[in-house]
Fold:
Amino acid sequence: MAGRVEMILKLGGSAICDKAKPKTPLLNEIRRLAEEISKAGVKRLILLHGGGSYGHVVADQYKIADGYQGSSQLIGFARTRLAMMELNRTVLESLLDQGVPAVSISPSSFVTTENGRIRQLFLDPIIMALELGAVPLLFGDAVFDTKKGFAIVSADQLAGRLAIDLKADRVIMGVDVDGIMADDHHRTGRQELLKVVSASDMMTASIHIHEPTGVDVTGGFRGKLSEMTPVAQSGIEVLFVNARVPGRIYRALRKEETVGTILTK
Structure:
């Protein structure tokens, strides 16, 4: 089917960066992940990555997610995009070194938003890349917004929209924890890994999700769940897996059993 994608893999910023140190990529992790992606050999794959200690820090400093409020933010808008392109280049180089034919496509060139939500999405470049056998590489970006002037479109939001529009078989969310962790205050006071979670549980907030700390202008872990809930409701399999643990992304791409959380209808 023209335009259909087999898998979408989103690598969280916390999985590929040290979020405690501005502009600090975890180069060994990025290289290992590129190797796992290459070995998995998935056809019709879309890759995305988050902002980590690059875009989030600059976007927060200039309040880009709040929209245009004055000309002093324009430098911040440009610097947010520059920071994301710097991280994207690092990821891209590792993929190319491993023989992955990744093609970087900047979301600001094919996405506009309205109040921070995707309004228009020009899919042709992505579809054409897939048809040629290339791997589109996208990232969270600062984009133009019809109501706010500009906004942040997260890689999570992009992954969710692309999954539905291109009818993906599976979305893999590579994070820096073992999956969706719930606070278990009533019993042990610890975090518990949820192996399977339904979208209805997310909608009713019947589970108290553990939220890691750190600067994140795109909503953190709850933001990821919010973006992935409609994906799961549409019948697409969503898997949260720890990208920091060697082999797990490879197994997820190969559809082999691995530690993580499956988000279902």
In short: The chain has one domain: 7-264. The longest strand covers residues 170-175. The mean pLDDT is 91. The domain at 7-264 is CATH 3.40.1160.10 (Carbamate kinase).
